[in-house]
C-alpha cells in the first residue's frame, strides 16, 4: 500500500468518524427524557417525604443526584452571565468560578422549592417539535387546583439531552437571573470578581416578576 493511498484512506476514515459524531443525535425523544427525569425526581421526593419534613435541607442531596446531572451548567452559565461571558469581558477562571457558584446556588434554590413538595400531580403537555436547536418540553404541576407550567429548554450535549434553561409560568429564569447578575455587577462597581463571589440567584424573586 503506497503512502498516498494510506493518507487518503486515513483521511477518509477520520472524516467519516467526525461526521458521524457531529450529526449523532440523542436516541431519546425530548419528552421521554424530561418525563424520565421528572418521574425519578418525584419518586425520590415521595420516598423521602417524611425525612424532608424533619430535615428540609436534605433535599439538596436529592437535587444533586436526580436533577443536577441533567443540567448543562456551561450553557446556563453563558445565559446568566450574558455579555460578561464573552472572552473580552471575563477570563476562563472567572467563568469557571461563576459556574461553580451558580450551580451551588441553584441546588439550594431548587432544594428549597422541592422541600415543599407534598404529592402534587403533574402531567406532560403534548410535545410539539419546532425544528429548532433547543427543544422545549412543558410539564404542568397542579397544587390545590392551581396549575403551574414549567418548560424545560433542552440542548444536545454529546448526544445526550440536558436542560439549558427553565421557564416557570411564563418567566424565563435564565433571563431573570441575568438581570440579577447585571445588577450585582453594578452594585460592585463593575468588579466581576466581587460580583461572582456575592451573586445569589433568587428564584422566588424571579418568578414573582
Automatic annotation (TrEMBL):
Keywords: Signal. It comes from the Bacteria. Residues 1-24 form the signal peptide. This is Toluene tolerance protein. InterPro entries: MlaC/ttg2D, Tgt2/MlaC_sf. It comes from Acinetobacter brisouii CIP 110357.
Amino acid at each position: 500500500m503506497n503512502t498516498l493511498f494510506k493518507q487518503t484512506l486515513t483521511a477518509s476514515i477520520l472524516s467519516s468518524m467526525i461526521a458521524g459524531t457531529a450529526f449523532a443525535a440523542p436516541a431519546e425523544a425530548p419528552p421521554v427524557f424530561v418525563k424520565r427525569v421528572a418521574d425519578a425526581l418525584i419518586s425520590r421526593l415521595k420516598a423521602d417525604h417524611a425525612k424532608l419534613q424533619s430535615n428540609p435541607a436534605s433535599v439538596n442531596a436529592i437535587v444533586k443526584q436526580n436533577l443536577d446531572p441533567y443540567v448543562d451548567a456551561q450553557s446556563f452559565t453563558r445565559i446568566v452571565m450574558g455579555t460578561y461571558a464573552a472572552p473580552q469581558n471575563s477570563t476562563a477562571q472567572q467563568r469557571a468560578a461563576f459556574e461553580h457558584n451558580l450551580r451551588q446556588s441553584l441546588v439550594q434554590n431548587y432544594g428549597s422549592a422541592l422541600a415543599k413538595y407534598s404529592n402534587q400531580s403533574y402531567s406532560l403537555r403534548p410535545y410539539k417539535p419546532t425544528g429548532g436547536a433547543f427543544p422545549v418540553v412543558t410539564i404542568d404541576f397542579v397544587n390545590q387546583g392551581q396549575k403551574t407550567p414549567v418548560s424545560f429548554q433542552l440542548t444536545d450535549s454529546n448526544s445526550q439531552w440536558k436542560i439549558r434553561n427553565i421557564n416557570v409560568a411564563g418567566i424565563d429564569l435564565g433571563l431573570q437571573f441575568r438581570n440579577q447578575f447585571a445588577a450585582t455587577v453594578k452594585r460592585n462597581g463593575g468588579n466581576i470578581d466581587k460580583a461572582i463571589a456575592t451573586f445569589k440567584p433568587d428564584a422566588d424573586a424571579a418568578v414573582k416578576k
